[in-house]
Amino acid sequence: xxxxxxxxxxxxxxxxxxxxxxxxxxxxxxxxxxxxxxxxxxxxxxxxxxxxxxxxxxxxxxxxxxxxxxxxxxxxxxxxxxxxxxxxxxxxxxxxxxxxxxxxxxxxxxxxxxxxxxxxxxxxxxxxxxxxxxxxxxxxxxxxxxxxxxxxxxxxxxxxxxxxxxxxxxxxxxxxxxxxxxxxxxxxxxxxxxxxxxxxxxxxxxxxxxxxxxxxxxxxxxxxxxxxxxxxxxxxxxxxxxxxxxxxxxxx
Length: 252
What we know:
Shape: globular
Largest sheet: 2 strands, antiparallel
Number of strands: 4
Number of helices: 11
Structural class: mainly alpha
Distance between the termini: 57 Å
Strand content: 5-15%
Strand order of the largest sheet: 1-2
Mean pLDDT: 88
Helix content: 40-55%
Order of helices and strands: HHHHHHHHEEHEEHH
């Protein structure tokens, strides 16, 4: 660390990682208004925040698989924050949203529900708050990873897109916030995936169930049979989870 520079705190890095998760890869730069805003609030330069975002990118194995490298000199604390999120998405996502709400203030693009006093009024109320906040965080993360685009059809209308789970929400609580368990799909294909009428293979290709009625299949689904999906910019879908969907959910 250069003389005169102040060390990054854990809270600052959590806030920066929160932004990393919600920002399309092509916007991890110092000209991004959200980067500029966070920098001002934590007393850093936009370049410093952008550099930390790229540091986090260097730790992302899904980017490494695509041959994309971030900065190579991430700190020990950068790695600790990365590992903390990846080992416990549910708790760290909520903590990052709480920190964000405290820093930005109500009405500044934060989740106002985090700030409501009832957050401390009991375990059940807290559970409901966390579920809602984390669902919104998961959607923001998946939409950013897929650049607001359906991975099967290429539809790029956010209001028509779902941040879906490969392994259902109810079946695997430990995977609810894990972005490697997420897919950006339009509402129709998300429902078809949920029902097992389509699947995505571990090598990221679409399969269509033979149980679909012929007319509907040819109109909405068959054109995608065997086609590769649009891969996310980060957080690649876990092949093992896709294998589970192929074997346990897909209607052969």
